[in-house]
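Please produce the structure of this protein holding NDP.
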Amino acid sequence: METEKIKCLIIGSGPAGYTAAIYASRANLAPVLYQGMEPGGQLTITTDIENFPGYPSGISGPAMMAEFEQQARKFGADIRGGIVTEADLSRRPFPVTVDGSKKIEAETLIVSTGATARYLPLESVQRFRGMGVSACATCDGFFYRGKRTAVVGGGDTACEEAVYLSTLCSHVCLIVRKDRLRASKAMQNRVMKTPNIEILFQYNVKEVLGDESGVTGATLEHCDGGEKGITVDGLFMAIGHYPNTAIFRGQIDLDPDGYIRTAPGTSRTNVPGVFAAGDVQDPVYRQAITAAASGCRAALDCERFLMVQGDETPNGNTRN
Ligand code: NDP
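Below is the modeled complex.
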């Protein structure tokens, strides 16, 4: 198979990747975007997005991402299914492999691979993944209508998931390892005001219990050493995310948590020609709007980079 040459390769299809594709295609960079493992990214597993400006009535996550994609395609972005499995950042054009076999040489890279939900590192959590243990209440909550569930975590995600589940389930336990919630005051108030949410402070999950039909409960451990059993059919993880940077490790500057470091106020990484946008470089804000804005910056930074490199061909891509 011949190596395809691409001027601007975008990896990832969340708000950052699609926004980069919209800007890069309008700038005549003929971007190619690989959608990755979860086309549309994390927003495809949310319900309504009510805080994205321009949608006063809210919009569902999947619908919003379909519109982002449509807008990128409209300007000529080449959106493809596929996972970038290798990237060599030691020389430019960057050799990249897609789905383990397809070879590409990319003049520039925009990395917008996002972040993935964390699970508790317990054998019983792994055992019951997909059988009652989930990291997405909005995807799986439906299966627990009228049942008892629990959410692990004390941040905004945990509170949001608990409130969402409380509308479907008879009872929701929020299992918080500290003596306080980390979530915003507004989210805390919502949780406190919801009668069927019970907050269990200073508890950790020791073991998930279940049988061949799935989760039936969990054993919790209090910080003073005492144990408590809970009866639940579903256990939702909301303990944060890790950035999807495994293929770049050792090749690009990452922070101690694995997020790509960018020069302040830009999308530039320490590797010339590689730009980062969205959650993969943002452990703090993690919003659709901030991801989209950083995708715009990445496309503009990329365009300027190519201009300085003196690459004036309107479309440096080759096809095979
Ligand atoms: P956070 O990192 O804010 O919270 C993670 C929570 O999980 C913390 O309470 C943490 O506990 C707990 N935790 C972590 N590891 C473990 C563990 N091993 N066992 C038990 N508990 C654990 O992640 P979120 O996903 O909640 O939020 C990330 C960012 O996204 C935040 O900036 C948040 O504000 C934002 N966000 C905003 C929303 C909105 O505006 N609508 C909705 C969702 C998220 P501890 O506090 O002890 O560290």
